[in-house]
Structures are given as structure tokens and as C-alpha cells.
């Protein structure tokens, strides 16, 4: 079984255990990001800054080492980063893709495997409660496999992680929204749910 590792996995585990989200006012001005591979346009909230390639690679290596300790050779790293934006240390919007040559049915099983891996790895003494749900959600006419997980930490911080994923031909496209601030979660979900894809891709 091959498991694709989500880029910010280790970073989120660490930062959410250490922080609570401070009260602050939010700017709702947005910048438009366009990706030509998926003909995808999304508005990025102004108060989110892009994480550098060097920092992304560092966190990816940390996550790789952590997951290899748990899963050994069952973990495979072959993702391509589209972007990673953050606000403070524990609110993230990430997009990435990986090659996937099998069918949508195979991808559905793979997505469930990833979700199980995330759920099991989040079980640790710092966590007091875990909740999760799986469903399908339509974004701009396209169906996305969706996995949502809520994590209550012993330090009274609550993390919400929303994963959206689907196949575009032979590429598996994934968006992660990870927050400890409900106001920022609403803003990011609004941006994602109102994003647009090329009309020629609205096939299922």
C-alpha cells in the first residue's frame, strides 16, 4: 500500500500542541491565485503569507521521518507543491498534487487509507478527543472526496483539518485547510468553495 504524505502534517502536529489562537481582527481583502495545470483560480485572504520553498521542504522532511517511524516502507513521497499559505503558526491553506495512474475507484481506496493514517497518527497523549467524518462535496461543479477531522488537545486548543481531493485525469489534486481559529477557517472555506476550475474539467 502506498501512502502519500501531506506536506504540513508534522508542522501542524507540533504547532497545534503548543499554541492557542489569539484574538485579532482579520482583513478580508483577497489576492487571486491561478494555476494553469488545473485551470484553477482561488482568492487568497490578504492576511495569509506564502511559505517559502525552503521551509516547505524542511517541514516535509520532518513529516517524512515521523511517518516512516510509524509506517516504514508503506510511505511514499512523490507530491508536487502548488502552494502553502499560513497565518500565524497554525492556520494553513495548502494545495498540491501527485501522479496517480489508476482508476477513480482505486483512488477512493487510497484516499481512505490516507485518512486512516492521519487519524491513527494523531492519537497521542497530547490529544484528548478526535472526531472525523467523510463525505463528497461539490466545488464549482466537481465532486471532491472530503475528510474532516477535529482534534481537541490537552492544552485546550482545537484543530480542524479539512481535506478535499479528486482525480484530474492522471493527477490527484488535494487541498488542505488546517486551522485553530474558527474565523480563519470560515474565511478559508469560503475562498475554497468559491474557487473556479476550467469548464472543460467539469466531467464528474
UniProtKB/TrEMBL annotation:
Protein name per the record: Lipoprotein
Amino acid at each position: 500500500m502506498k501512502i502519500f504524505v501531506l506536506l504540513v502534517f508534522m508542522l501542524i502536529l507540533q504547532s497545534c500542541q503548543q499554541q492557542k489562537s489569539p484574538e485579532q481582527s482579520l482583513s478580508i481583502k483577497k489576492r487571486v491565485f491561478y494555476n494553469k495545470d488545473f485551470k484553477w483560480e482561488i482568492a487568497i485572504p490578504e492576511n495569509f503569507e506564502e511559505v517559502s520553498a525552503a521551509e516547505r521542504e524542511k517541514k516535509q522532511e520532518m513529516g517524512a521521518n515521523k511517518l516512516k517511524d510509524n509506517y516504514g516502507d508503506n510511505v511514499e513521497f512523490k507530491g508536487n507543491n502548488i502552494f502553502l499559505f499560513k497565518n500565524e503558526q497554525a492556520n494553513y491553506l495548502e494545495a498540491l498534487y501527485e501522479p496517480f495512474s489508476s482508476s477513480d475507484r482505486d483512488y477512493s481506496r487510497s484516499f481512505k487509507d490516507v485518512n486512516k493514517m492521519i487519524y491513527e497518527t494523531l492519537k497521542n497523549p497530547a490529544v484528548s478527543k478526535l472526531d472525523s467524518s467523510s463525505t463528497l462535496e461539490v466545488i464549482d461543479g466537481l465532486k471532491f472526496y472530503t475528510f474532516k477531522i477535529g482534534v481537541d488537545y490537552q492544552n485546550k486548543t482545537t484543530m480542524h483539518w479539512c481535506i478535499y481531493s479528486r482525480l484530474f485525469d492522471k493527477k490527484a489534486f488535494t487541498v488542505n485547510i488546517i486551522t485553530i481559529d474558527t474565523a480563519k477557517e470560515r474565511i478559508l472555506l469560503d475562498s475554497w468553495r468559491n474557487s473556479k476550475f476550467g469548464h472543460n474539467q467539469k466531467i464528474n
